[in-house]
Specification:
108 residues; alpha+beta
């Protein structure tokens, strides 16, 4: 799944090697209305390095990468419980569009 993208281009960002401090995944795709989007997912910062701007750097680099490939819009996926990430993305100008809901077996 990490390397899967439907009719698009996939890229990764890493800060710090060989032991990454921050990582991220980007996918550039074209919507049915021909808008090009870069989608950010799997953004992660090692616990001792959080709240120092590394997540912002990874996101900015992936957005720049997507822009070079024609993306004019960006979206991201984040878990609703990840309050630190939600604050970061709000500071970057992202707004909530929707939430995922998962089906579960009926309780008997």
């Amino acid at each position: 799944m990490l390397r899967a993208v439907n009719e698009g281009e996939l890229g990764f960002a890493t800060l710090g090697l060989p032991n990454p401090l921050a990582i991220g995944r980007g996918a550039v795709t074209t919507a049915p209305d021909d808008r090009r989007w870069v989608g950010l997912s799997c953004i992660a910062v090692a616990a001792p390095h959080r709240r120092h701007g590394l997540g912002t750097l990874v996101c900015a680099e992936l957005i720049h990468w997507g822009h070079k490939r024609g993306a004019t819009h960006a979206y991201l996926q984040v878990e609703v419980e990840n309050t630190g990430a939600l604050e970061l993305y709000q500071e970057m100008g992202f707004v909530e569009h929707h939430r995922y809901r998962y089906a579960t077996p009926a309780q008997s």
